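note to self: dont lose this again. the chain is below, predicted strucutre after it. 419 aa total, dont forget to put it in the shared folder this time
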Amino acid sequence: MGVLMSKKQQVEKVQKCSAVVSAFKEGLKDRPPQARCPENTGEPEDKSVERPAAPAPSGKEEDEGQVQEGSKQASTSQQASASLKEEDNRINQEAWSRLRDGKGVEPEDLDKANQLTRPAFVRPKRDAGDDQPVDIALGQREQPVNDEMCEICEVWTADDLFPCRSCSRVFHDGCLREMGYLGTSALKEMREAAHTATGWSCYYCDNVNLLLTDEEMHSLTETFKECKIIPESCLGSDEFLQYKNFLSKQLFEKDLMDEKEEEMLAQFSALDPEKRGQIEWTDFLYHESLEVLKKFRSQNSLVRLLTAKERDRARSVFLSLDQDKDGLVLSGETRKAQQSWFQKNTKETQSCNVSISHVGPISENSPASSASEKSREKTSITSGKDDNRQLSWPEFLKESAIFILAARPNSPAVHLRPL
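---
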């Protein structure tokens, strides 16, 4: 037993010595070079002898200290710059994520603490027979009836409900406000327009970007990123032309021709009805969304996107143009009808019972008439050759479908200018 205790004591002593030696070595490593003890020469240390003071740091050491201080400041500056860049990336990422819901912008004048939960938007999927012809009879009016209850709160309150001009949904103005879909100024415009002949589009129909499938939206988003276009930003004419030139190089491997540039500038003017020299993000997004539909969808597919109200309005316009009742209209008249889709609400309060067949050509002070005179002259020369082409009702509807969809947004901008 005594032997065992002795061995245990020896082991403990060895462990303690090892710990002390290790701690001593670590302490030596942490000390600065000038503070190290002199090497042991075997002579006893004479404490009575004063040791010489440590030499002052040389100029080289001072320079090294300044370099270290400068590197610390540079590191701090880099960290601040990286933090700002990270914040910008976060903001841009949030904008891109909001683009999933069609606009990519925050609602205006919205108290988020009291905001009701919005429904999730689900992008459409194309069916196998989406490109097949669809039979829409000319003589059979659909006369769609508006819903009886508010789309948001599902409560019926008769005259306090505001209908959408494109679909059958109806809404309370208070519900639209609490959901954050409309700000104060937009609500006022809605109240003035909803019960007129021109009408008002609800947040589903107003946002034509929601007509794109996930694949189409992904393609559009990637193009925006390649051109460094950030959601929520306004575009000037130079940026708009630069973007269109990029698309031309991507599709045709060449820049826009002069004539095509004039068409793009005329479209820019139509998107900027107030002549501010820039177009809003949502107007640009809607224009590009319609361009995607025009590029990737067949005319039959576009006709399938029309609502019953829009088909009824198209019937009224066709019948008003078919004066001799032979079931045919001229392409020149069709072009004027396409322009008439963009007739905006006037200040006169018209009853919604007024026949929508009284849709005339575009007025001189309408947004679509804001294109340059030179561009309009060229358009009239080139389109005049085709003005006498006769169109049947199905052909009229197929050629007009994209322009009917382009007329859905409430914005005064013309998102797809008829040529």
